[in-house]
């Protein structure tokens, strides 16, 4: 652990109703965060998340955010950064969808999970670079490392986002801005409700703890749980003819 690390005081969540994002915000507020900005579609879930974090002691702002409204991102996040420096940005917008061979549905998944998330991340990365410090946390997935037949549309979008974030980290090297890529496995959330859990399934709170540890360790990429790093290293070597027959 780097002894110079100090827990962040401000947090912007892109995808403010994500179970993982709310759990992470809750944990960071318990540590040191006092300003939280939740960017998401207006909804009861967003209001409840904001109320919970206010009760925990944070000053919370809600910003209307639509992942597919790319032309609005610059203005929305520009106003957030104009209100004060942001120490951590967590990009957690995405939709799981289904693998029905429907090009419209597939494009909708990609538009939110890859294109919208990429746009938001770039706008925020530029703002972080301008202020000279901060960490951009990008919520990827182990699915990005090798898509399975059960989730290949979602996995392809996450793979694109993951590759983008890795490249962005290199582009920002030396700027004072760091990128942390988070690759969780199956997480018990409202997005995965009703789906059979995969091996090493975890919870939003466990992912939040791992994100905080990643911030403290200055890591570039983390897997949650950590054993998935070794699991995926093996699965990448499995011949395709065998891999396609694996469950789910």
Any descriptors?
248 residues, alpha/beta, 7-stranded parallel β-sheet, 46% helix
Report what the structure shows:
By secondary structure, the chain is α/β, with parallel strands linked by helices. The protein has helices spanning 19-31, 44-55, 70-82, 103-131, 152-171, 204-217, 228-235, 240-243, and strands spanning 10-14, 35-40, 59-64, 88-91, 134-139, 177-184, 221-224. It has a seven-stranded parallel beta sheet with strand order 3-2-1-4-5-6-7, with helices on both faces.
Radius of gyration: 17 Å
Q: Which segments are poorly predicted (pLDDT under 50) over 5 or more consecutive residues? A: none
Reading the helices and strands in chain order gives: EHEHEHEHEHEHEHH
How many E-type strands? 7
Task: Give a short account of the largest sheet.
Answer: 7 strands, parallel
The share of residues in extended strands comes to: 15-25%
Mean pLDDT across the residues is 92
Shape: globular
User: Strand sequence of the main sheet, in spatial order?
Assistant: 3-2-1-4-5-6-7
Question: How does the SSE layout of this entry go?
Answer:
Elements: E1 10-14, H1 19-31, E2 35-40, H2 44-55, E3 59-64, H3 70-82, E4 88-91, H4 103-131, E5 134-139, H5 152-171, E6 177-184, H6 204-217, E7 221-224, H7 228-235, H8 240-243
Parallel strand pairs: 1-2, 1-4, 2-3, 4-5, 5-6, 6-7
Helix pairs in contact: 1-6, 3-4, 4-5
């Amino acid at each position: 652990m780097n002894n110079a690390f100090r827990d962040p005081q401000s947090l912007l969540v892109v995808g403010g109703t994500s179970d993982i994002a709310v759990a992470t915000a809750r944990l960071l507020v318990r540590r040191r965060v006092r300003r939280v900005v939740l960017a998401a579609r207006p909804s009861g879930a967003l209001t409840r998340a904001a109320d919970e974090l206010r009760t925990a002691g944070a000053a919370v702002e809600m910003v209307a955010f639509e992942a597919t409204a790319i032309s609005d991102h610059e203005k929305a996040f520009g106003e957030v950064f104009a209100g004060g420096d942001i120490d951590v940005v967590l990009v957690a917008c995405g939709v799981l969808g289904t693998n029905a061979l429907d090009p419209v549905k597939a494009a909708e998944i990609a538009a939110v999970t890859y294109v919208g998330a990429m746009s938001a991340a770039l706008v925020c990365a530029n703002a972080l670079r301008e202020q000279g410090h901060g960490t951009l946390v990008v919520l990827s997935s182990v699915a990005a490392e090798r898509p399975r037949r059960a989730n290949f549309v979602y996995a392809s979008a996450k793979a694109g986002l993951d590759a983008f974030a890795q490249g962005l980290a290199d582009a920002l090297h030396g700027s004072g801005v760091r990128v942390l890529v988070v690759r969780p496995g199956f997480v018990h959330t409202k997005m995965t409700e009703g789906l059979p859990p995969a091996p090493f399934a975890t919870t939003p709170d466990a992912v939040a703890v791992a994100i905080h540890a990643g911030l403290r360790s200055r890591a570039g990429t983390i897997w949650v749980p950590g054993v998935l790093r070794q699991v995926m290293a093996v699965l990448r070597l499995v011949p395709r003819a065998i891999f396609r027959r694996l469950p789910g």
